Amino acid sequence: MRADTENMAPGRAAAYEALRDVARVPGSPKPDPIVIADRVSRQFGGLKAVDVAHVEIQRGSITALIGPNGAGKTTLFNLLTGFDKPDTGEWTLNKKPIAGKAPYRLARMGMVRTFQLTKALSRMTVMDNMLLGANGQSGERVLNALLPFTWRAQERANAERAVELLSRFNLDAKVGDFAGSLSGGQRKLLEMARALMVGPEIVMLDEPMAGVNPALTQSLLGHIKNIREEGTTVLFVEHDMDMVHDISDWVIVMAQGQIIAEGPPDAVMKDPQVIEAYLGSRHGNALTADGASLTADSQGGTT
Amino acid sequence: MLRRVRLALGVLLLTSVAFLVSGGFSPATAADTTITGTLSTPAGLPVTGVVITAIGPDGVSVSGTSDEKGVFVIPLSAGGSYTVELDITTLPEGITLNNEADASRSLLVLGGEKRIIIGLSEGGESGIVAGSSGTGERVVQLFLDGILYGLVIALGAVGLNLVFGTTGLTNFSHGELLTLGAFTALTFNTAGLNIIIAAPIAIIFAALVYGWGQNRILWRPLRRRKTGLIAAMIVSIGLAIFLRYTLVLFFGGAPQSYKQFAGQPGIALGPFNTTPKALILGALAIIALAATVIWLQRSRIGKATRAVSDNPALASATGIDVERVISVVWIIGAGLAAFAGIYLGLTQNTVWNMGQRILLVLFAAVILGGLGTIYGAIVGAMVVGIFIQMTTLFIPTEMKTVGALFLMILILLVRPQGLLGRKERVG
Amino acid sequence: MDFGQIFTLTITQAFGVTALIYLFAAIGLNIQFGYTGLLNFGQVAFVAAGAYAVGVIVLTLDLSLWLSIIVALMASTVLALLLGIPTLRLRADYLAIVTIAASELLRLLVRSIAFKDVFGGAQGLNGKLGQEFHDLNPLPADFTLPILSWSRQDLWVVIVGWSLALLFTLFVWGLVRSPWGRVVKGIREDEDAVVSLGKNVFVYKLQALVIGGGIAAFGGILWAVAKQSVQPDTFQPDFTFFVFTILLLGGAARVFGPIAGTVIFWFLLAGFGEVLSSLINNGYIDFLTATDVGSIRFMLMGLGLMLLMIFRPQGIFGDRRELALDAR
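Structure tokens for the assembled complex are given below, as produced in the milestone run.
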């Protein structure tokens, strides 16, 4: 039993153990779910973009949400994080119902997301980007703002934490730079570091690899693994199956708004239904400009 | 050097005794400017005790009262844009304004003699509904007035919406396209062309120069520079201000009329009072709008326009020349706007800020129909036009725009995508 | 030509009462647009709220000027809430249209005959509006300035006005360097990102609107007190756009941007007007008349706004580094 986990990092091993006996069917129950969602649906015009009967996300794992373009992954993400309103659905974070709550409240409760198109705050410094992530700052209240002594100590502590996080993401040399001057990959890292600054229990990364130069992809994957090793749950959207394989503990596959398969990466990738979904989509793409890759033509698009 | 400027009234007066207010001042010493005038009937009977106030650009107001000879004097400290007000409460018993809007008008005091005609009624009701009998007839009248007004708004709003749809620009200088069109026609008209000939030439000129040319010189380079939408919006505000005061410089601040049809007598069609020119213009407007709709439906470039409005990136990827579509949209938008301007010029008058005054109403129409949706502009315009006229049943005429603006704000809050717009897909 | 006189008149206007009115509106707009990114095209409504509060309290109701200042701030706050609560969730261009429409709507209401008893209709409210303030004037009764052409009364307004303007500038400086300022700047850059970090963006935007509106209302109070007159048609949308020009000239999101912008704007505008008038009066230019100067000034203002936005959106003192990043 120990053999297959002994070379793994502790967080990876724990997740592996926990998920080993989970049924490999859509909507399967997990031993320790952090997020549980039921009957979440969202319609755009006549198109049912999302129609998820039941899904659970295991705490402490890296779960990948994959699917071809237009499968409804980002829409589901937007719904779960409160950035879009569903037509139906209930879901919980740590057993607390959170459907219909404002997105900023979800962030404060520990569910923090990033965006497909990186949202680094360009005309602010890297440090200011980070400090914005810190929660419960008394200086953010307008009445305290003019009284620096009420927030100075807290500000210093937050800055220390920010530097620490930045150095983990190799951004400590950029503290005083404008975020807009960073490269695409560095912005992704900054966005992740900033999300961690909130102190989340679960981070939800929307296509963290999109638009990142391939040389940086490996180090980005390393950073995502580190997030799990520190005990934070990761859910991320990706449409390139190969990326997913290396880092995820569990994979959820969506197609046409529904979850069609779940399981560990190896098992999912052999699932004929999944291959069919991807191939179908590949054929569809071939009719337009280029069918060469599933990654290239969806950057900046909607899912 | 005295310029004589005649100022015609927007609404034709139906009734009785007309009094003349003629004001003029000597520009000999600029520091000693006055507006003086005599209030009298054409028969020469003075109207006394009427208070007339000029409110200057600094907000300072000066009043004058007509004396026993009907003469009033308003001393001014400087030239500029003044609001001249007639205090209707001081009018003698039994005398009212024909048109409530005449109680206050903007006037740019630059030099020369100005002649203002204000219609007054004696003994009767005031306003354009004088003599009409039941509410039912009034409703019909206002409804048809609303349709005619809606057509003007539609002509203006289609271009505004097409440009927004294809380029994303919220164009605050679109009102000036109306004004420029009206003044171009005025220039040809003053040069000796009958307005029937001057108008189409002006529309073509406007479409090419103010539409195609403006896009070429200003907006296309800005798109190339990747100027943001908010920055472009502010640029359009600067352009609007620049154009307005350029017109003041060359044409003066007083309203002017075309040489023909200025005082066309009204006709009655059953319960509906109107003028032949308004009906003909209305019919032409319907033809122009219908042609635009058919063009969008049928022609290649029209379909391409709809595709670009829907999704510029996708349209461009499928081989549509987006810049060409945008050029065509500017040409059509400016042409229709010029038509709207001439329409207003013929039924009311041409004045430097006529476009600015209607701009918010155009926005109301566009937002009501759905920003960026092409047919929405027309539907929205008709609704706004009729709404504005019908609300005068319940609120004073001077506040009819208030109703339209309020409606627009309400729509934005309840259904931001407009009546015909689709809900935006997020994510 | 008397260059000394031209210079004196220009300086008088660059630091004068009208410039101060625009300055207060610009300081407020700097918080709203410069730092928070709110496209408030209805700033003139806040100025009008301040001016009308003074007019109504002092003239219509015959109460104290000091009370009217409190009412002015209450009025601008209520206006900000009325405008903000429904619209701050809308897209930027919708917010722009709603705010400009609301400012026009308010102007049409206060100038209407229906409310003439309260607001004075199209003539507005005119009379002894600032007596209690002018009674406090410490300057000797026979005081005249050696060079500048302010009257004793105007000078008193200018002194108090500039002191207040500096105070508000200090206030803005304190606000924007605090964590609160960081949040609103983040909202300007990308609202969704700030939401995703757990900030209630709506509340911050509303706060910015209220604070900026309150400062703009002081412009209106100053207007009523200094000019002894409140006229509806002076509160046209163009006022707001000139405030935008001032702000962009001095540099949006710079603490001293409004002050620099106001002084430069009025210096250029007044200086140009005086020089041109002088040239015309002395016969150097014969194709224009003295009355054309006004229109040419406005033309230049419009042109200036366009060129600024196209070529130097960061203002004339702006940082090139920031410009290079400007994605908008």
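Chain C has 15 helices and two strands. Chain C has one domain: 3-127+148-315. Further analysis is deferred to the final report.
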